[in-house]
Structures are given as C-alpha cells and as structure tokens.
Amino acid sequence: MMKLETGAACALALALTFAGPALAQDQVDQLLKPTPAAPAAVNDGEAYHRADDSEQDPVEVRTTQALNDEIASRNTLAENQERADQVAFEAERARHEQLVAQSLQARLDYEEALRQADDARRRWEADQARWEADVRACQAGDRLRCGPPRY
To answer: Which of 60, 58, 44, 54 lies closest to 5, judged by CA?
Structure first.
C-alpha cells in the first residue's frame, strides 16, 4: 500500500477539492509518488506530538485549517438540520397523539351510541311484546287490557 506524507495528502485533498478535473495528471502523479518507509522509531505508538510553529508547513496548516473549517461548517449545518428535524418530529408526534385521542373519543362516542340504540331497541321490543299480549288478552275477553297501551 502506498503511504503519503501528511502534507502531501492534505495538499492532494485540497488540490482535488478546488482544482477538480483541471488538475494536471503529472501534478497528481507527483503528489501520489510513494515515499520510502521511515524506520521504526523507538516509541512507535499512537502518541500525538504537535510540532513547533516554526516547524509547521504553512501550506499544510492552511489546508488543514480549510478542511477543519469545512468540517465545522458541515457539523453546524447537520446540527441545525437535526434541531429542525426534532422540531418537525415533535410537531408530527403531537399531531399524531391528537389524532389518536380524537379516534379514541370517536370510538367511545360510537360505543355509547350503540349502547343507547340497543337499550332503545330492547325497550321497543318489550313495549311491542306487552302491546301484543294486551291485544291477545283483549281479543280473548279481558276488557281491562283493551285500553290504550300502558307504557
């Protein structure tokens, strides 16, 4: 695998970002040219050691700063989008909860109307049965039951 120097990698990223396809192939090849592997240091760990400002490559510093600024900008946009999405989610959740409450109330109203209709039907059937019994009794000669219906 090819290893790029950090400065070359940043320069390549910056050049590709801003130059795009207009970057000459020989410039790309020069930036991608492999470098000899450095001998292993005594402390070959993952420790980060910031170089003094005098040792910093100004191009690399500008490239890094530009990339960091772009990342920070994208993070800010993502945070703003996340907040907007959260507000939209909460509004939609509140609307959904309202619809669920309305649906529940509609179902309860329907069930109550159904109970009332069943009660009214049962009362009507009972009244109808009493009237038919009174008619039969009246026709059989029971004059006390020949009057108007007794509700």
So the answer is: 60
Q: What is the 3-state secondary structure (H, E, C) of the chain?
A: CCCCCHHHHHHHHHHHHHHHHHCCHHHHHHHHCCCCCCCCCCCCCCCCCCCCHHHCCHHHHHHHHHHHHHHHHHHHHHHHHHHHHHHHHHHHHHHHHHHHHHHHHHHHHHHHHHHHHHHHHHHHHHHHHHHHHHHHHHHCCCHHHCCCCCC
- Chain segment 89-139, per-residue pLDDT in tens: 999 999 999 999 999 999 999 999 999 999 999 999 999 999 999 999 999
16-25 contacts at long range (C-beta below 8 A, 24 or more positions apart): none
Encoded tokens for 120: 């009214």
Residue with tokens 């090849």: 29
The phi and psi torsions of 107 (rounded to 5 degrees) equal: -65, -45
